[in-house]
Design goal:
The complex is a heterodimer of chains A (about 280) and B (about 270).
Chain A (H helix, E strand, L loop, with lengths): L5 H23 L6 E5 L11 E7 L17 E7 L2 E7 L10 H4 L1 H8 L4 E10 L9 E9 L27 H12 L6 E8 L8 H9 L4 E3 L3 H9 L3 E11 L10 H25 L2
Parallel strand pairs in A: 1-4, 1-5, 5-9, 6-7, 7-8
Antiparallel strand pairs in A: 2-3, 3-4, 5-8, 6-9
Chain B lengths: L2 H16 L6 E5 L11 E7 L17 E7 L2 E7 L10 H14 L3 E10 L9 E9 L27 H14 L3 E8 L8 H10 L3 E3 L3 H9 L3 E11 L10 H24 L2
Parallel strand pairs in B: 1-4, 1-5, 5-9, 6-7, 7-8
Antiparallel strand pairs in B: 2-3, 3-4, 5-8, 6-9
The chains are: A alpha/beta (about 280), B alpha/beta (about 270).
Chain lengths: ~280, ~270
């Protein structure tokens, strides 16, 4: 059903969006969220800074799966951040959890349906570029889809987007310029830029695979973001991507890695990350 | 008997009743190249809907019918419209028509497609002889129990695109005054177009052109023992080479512009068989 029934999928999107629209209207009147943020592993705290928050657990929403990963709480926070109306996702759905690609990107279409026109995708990633260090933030300049799947496979629903969406500039150049500007005012923040390789996981990559990713032009590696970015471009959203480099994934210096370490570095980098995203929101027109 | 073989037989049985002859050459026509089928005299046209187990193509520019007729004196069946993995079809379904053609008697398969140019010396409108391919689709039509009636368990892929047929195509191109490129086709799932970073990766890997078809068909064709000729129409330059977005409209426009040259090349190659 996931891959063939586009009408059913659109109805599910509408269903979930209608539910949210009702809750949002009750709380905020006619004001709609314009900027969506999906917060990655260990970065969820930004959602707690939202002013006048309306919290909606995914479990309350029709057709939303529940996030199964530690460090991903699984709820929307609506409200204001730096004067902008935001829809913040604390917790996302990953392909490695066993969800279909369509289900992974479902919230992207729901966010567009409730008014979101700009999507900020954040994640924790391993650094492949030797000039990076754990604790850097990386602006995504582009991505390489190595998941072996695509959220748009199946009959296309023209109401959601075109059959063959262009991907020549997934991560909006203007938003990236804005992020660079915002970063320049933050003490102790090193903002790098690079290509994010999206793999399925959930196993981390062995040195030989990391070497291969370096050869093909990857600067960072992670298990999310790529499907969401593809769906967001399909849906006509402007996209910005930010990785928190939580560990260095250098093939010849690889140490055993645990999810706890990833979350610990994300925790340490969080204040700078929060400041950067706040700065970007401030800069947005 | 395997399910695939059963489906192949049922489709072939129906087609034998409808075809005017036993075909020897099969053609699969890619995006915007379907016009080739309109150049046949007295064609027999069979909509896919009339053939058991054939899905109906969902992409504009892919008509979805089997056309039989003579090309340069050779008995041919043409698939006008193919099935793509991005449409949601299983890879076995995508390659079923190849097996049906083989069952009907086809021994030579001409596969064509519209592809994005990765090699920077290419230009939109170029025709590229496929020398080899890279399967970047994360799918293989032969996964599952093997049916020895259809082919061997571990088919050789050292020469998926026949060197003999490539030489014939070069001769045909020369005779027609058509300049012909050659290169490696990388098959991707799609349907989103590639990112510039993905294109750079593919160039590093040795690809000259990229598209969303052909690879599963060629794997199945080699499994079935068919001799394959592959021709790409370079319909656009891949992402990041020119400073402009990609669109399906551009692909169709280029195919339209090139089709006369394309038809001459294919006819010329078939004449030399």
């Amino acid at each position: 059903m996931d891959r063939t029934d586009t009408f059913g999928y659109r109805m599910q999107i509408r269903d979930a969006a209608d539910h949210l629209k009702g809750l949002l209207a009750e709380r905020f009147g006619s004001a709609k969220p314009e900027i969506g943020l999906i917060l990655g592993s260990g970065l969820g705290e930004l959602g707690d800074r939202v002013e006048n928050p309306l919290i909606v657990d995914y479990a309350q929403l029709p057709h939303f799966p529940r996030s199964t990963v530690a460090g991903h709480s699984g709820r929307f926070v609506f409200g204001e951040l730096e004067g902008k109306r935001v829809a913040v996702m604390q917790g996302r759905f990953h392909y490695y959890e066993g969800y279909s690609m369509r289900r992974v990107v479902f919230p992207v279409y729901v966010m567009r349906e409730i008014g979101v026109n700009t999507l900020v995708l954040t994640n924790a990633a391993g650094g492949l570029n030797k000039s990076f260090a754990a604790g850097d933030l990386m602006l995504l300049s582009d991505h390489i889809n190595l998941t072996g799947d695509n959220p748009l496979i199946g009959p296309n629903d023209e109401e959601l987007g075109p059959r063959f969406p262009d991907m020549s500039a997934v991560y909006d150049p203007e938003l990236r310029a804005l992020a660079r500007k915002a970063a320049s005012g933050i003490d102790g923040l090193r903002l790098v830029e690079g290509v994010y390789c999206g793999i399925t996981g959930p196993s981390y990559s062995p040195p030989a695979e990391l070497r291969m990713l370096q050869v093909i032009g990857g600067d960072a590696i992670g298990m999310s973001t790529v499907p969401e970015a593809i769906a967001a471009r399909h849906a006509g959203l402007r996209v910005l991507g930010i990785s928190c480099i939580t560990d260095m994934a250098l093939p010849d210096e690889l140490e055993p890695l645990t999810h706890e370490q990833v979350v610990a570095v994300a925790e340490r980098t969080k204040p700078k990350f929060i400041e950067l995203v706040r700065g970007i929101l401030r800069e947005m027109p | 008997m395997s399910e695939t073989l059963k489906q192949v037989q049922e489709a072939a049985d129906v087609l034998r009743e409808k075809l005017p002859f036993t075909p020897e050459v099969g053609l699969i026509l890619g995006s915007g190249l379907g016009v080739m089928a309109d150049t046949l005299d007295n064609p027999a046209v069979i909509p896919y809907g009339d053939i058991p187990h054939f899905p109906v193509s969902t992409v504009p520019g892919h008509a979805g019918e089997l056309v039989a007729g003579e090309i340069e004196g050779k008995k041919a069946v043409i698939m006008k419209g193919r099935f793509h993995l991005y449409e949601g079809y299983d890879v076995k379904r995508v390659t079923l028509p190849i097996r049906v053609m083989r069952r009907l008697g086809v021994r030579t398969l001409v596969i064509t497609n519209a592809a994005g140019g990765i090699n920077e010396s290419f230009e939109p409108g170029d025709l590229m002889l496929i020398r080899d391919h890279i399967n970047f689709m994360f799918r293989n039509p032969l996964i599952g129990p093997n049916d020895e009636e259809l082919g061997v368990r571990f088919p050789d892929m050292s020469e998926p695109y026949s060197a003999r047929l490539r030489e014939l195509a070069r001769q045909a191109a020369q005779a027609q005054g058509i300049s012909l490129r050659e290169g490696v086709y990388l098959g991707l799932l799609g349907p989103s177009y590639e990112t510039p970073a993905e294109i750079r990766m593919m160039r590093t890997l040795g690809a000259d052109a990229v598209g969303m078809s052909t690879v599963p068909e060629v794997i199945a064709a080699r499994h079935a023992g068919l001799e394959v000729l592959g021709i790409s129409c370079i319909s656009n330059m891949a992402a990041g080479i020119l400073d402009q977005p990609l669109s399906h409209a551009e692909v169709m426009e280029t195919a339209e512009r090139v089709r006369e040259k394309f038809v001459r090349l294919v006819r010329g190659a078939i004449a030399l068989l």
